[in-house]
Input
Amino acid sequence: MAKKTESIYKNWNEVDAALKELGELNVAKTRIEGEQTLKINSIKADANAKSAIIQTRIKDIEKNIERFTDANKSEFLSKRTKKLTYGVISFRLVRKVCCNCIEEAIKGLKVLNLDFCIRTKQELDKDRLLECDENMLLKAGITIKTEDKVRIEPNFEKLAAISSETNKL
Output
């Protein structure tokens, strides 16, 4: 087991001063993260505006290539791929699942005993597990651990008031 080290604080006044510093650091961190988010959003908006014209042109070219290829589909009867200087055009058989209402499709699959076609995500419900008998859970390899954790809460309201008073000076 790891050896516990001693705190650098010697009394509650030092702890209170540390709480003040902790709160101020959290406020500063939040402010920096807010500025970061604003800058990132601005960069994203600028990039989206610049690339929107390009994306529209890409889709237009792809649609026109598809139209031309569909109109000349007879050239792909013997060979499904056509190599060109700047790329390849080919027809591939693609299968995809389509349904109008997922809930209705799931009900129908259950009625037809095709449950294996339904994907279910399974995860532990930790809130419900905390209500169960610990001896029963132990049989499933689950233990409930109880800890006495320290909760550190700087008084952000008081720190913000002090900060706004300092900024006024």
User: Anything to note?
Assistant: Residues 12-143 form one domain.
